[in-house]
Amino acid sequence: MMKLNPYLNFAGNTEEAFRFYKAIFGGEFSSIVRFKDMPVAGVPIPKKDENKIMHVSLPIGNDHVLMGTDTLEALGQRLVQGNNVHISVHPESKVEADRIFAALSRGGTIEMPIADQVWGDHYGSLKDKFGVQWMVNYTPPKER
Hints:
Largest sheet: 8 strands, mixed
CATH class: Alpha Beta
Structural class: alpha+beta
CATH superfamily: 2,3-Dihydroxybiphenyl 1,2-Dioxygenase, domain 1
Distance between the termini: 21 Å
Number of helices: 2
């Protein structure tokens, strides 16, 4: 079944925000990756940003995940209230991810083209023609 999850952007205080959410909702982080742990190809991350959060996920209930990241000026990102929320859609196949990405991006602006990523997922992000920000992320099944 396809899932939709909120993805929040912060101006350098993602870790603080997610510790706050964890204290409220409980649970444990299913993922927490710092920029120093997952280098962006060809883009040097300034020393001051190395410990900032590239990705964090906090499962809430059985089927929902709150996710987030720090925006980095070094990557050309700038947080403006209103661009700090994405809808993250998780299709069940790579073909479906490509179809959804192509359809949502028609008339919109592609932020990151959908492609296989270094972390193993097939991922892309965009703003649709209505100004809604989307992340399309297909995670292949783990090999046993």
